[in-house]
Amino acid sequence: MKFLAAALLAILFILAPAGCRQKSDSSLPVTPMQIGAENFNLEIATSFHDQEVGLMHRDHLDPDHGMIFVSKGEQPQTFWNHDVHFPLDLIFLDAGGAIVSLKHMAAFSEANTASDAPAKYVIELNAGTTSRLQLKIGDRLAIPKPALNPPS
C-alpha cells in the first residue's frame, strides 16, 4: 500500500506541471507593422473572445511582438491587465491611424485603463516601447491591411 501511494504521488509530481503550463503561443493571425522606426509582428485580435483573452497567461512578450485589437468602429476603449504577467504600453488609434492616447498598464493590474478619445485600434507592446520610439499624440501609423479588413 505504501508503494502504491508513493507511486501515485510521483505520477502527480510528474504530471502536475504539464497541467499548469500556460500556452505562450497563439493561433491568431499575425501581421507585420512598422511603428516608429521599428518593425513589429502583431497578433490580430478581432473576436470578443480573442480580445477578452488578449495577452493573458503568457510569461513574456518578445521585444518585436505585440497585439492589435480591432473594433468595429471608433469608440471609447477600456483595457485592463488581468493575468498579464508583464507591464504593457497601449497605443490607441483612430480609424485613420492617428494616435489619440498613449497609456501604460502594470502587470496583473485590475485597474481600467481608458482611451482619452474614441479609438478603433489598440496596440499592446512591452512597457517602455512607446517612450523608446518617441511616439506622441497625433502621430500617424499605417494600419496593416490584415487589420484594416480582418476576417469577421
Polypeptide structure, described:
The chain has 152 residues and is α+β, with helices and mostly antiparallel strands. Helices cover 22% and strands 33% of the residues. It has four helices and eight strands; from the N terminus they run αββαββββββαα. A six-stranded mixed beta sheet has the order 1-2-3-8-5-6. Strands 4-7 form a two-stranded antiparallel ribbon. The longest helix has 19 residues, at 2-20. The termini are far apart.
Helix-strand layout with pairing:
Blueprint: H1 2-20, E1 30-35, E2 38-45, H2 48-53, E3 65-75, E4 78-79, E5 88-93, E6 99-105, E7 113-114, E8 119-126, H3 129-132, H4 145-148
Put the structure in a nutshell:
With 152 residues, this protein is α+β, with helices and mostly antiparallel strands. It is built from four helices and eight strands; from the N terminus they run H-E-E-H-E-E-E-E-E-E-H-H.
Radius of gyration: 19 Å
Main pleated sheet: 6 strands, mixed
Provide a count of the helices. Answer: 4
**Class of secondary structure makeup:** alpha+beta
Integer average pLDDT: 85
- How would the global form be characterised? globular
For this structure, the quaternary state is: single chain
Helix content: 10-25%
CATH architect. name = Sandwich
Number of beta-strand segments: 8
CATH topology: the name is Jelly Rolls
Distance between the termini: 57 Å
Low-confidence stretches: 3-24
Strand content: 25-35%
Estimate nothing, just give the exact number of structural domains. 1
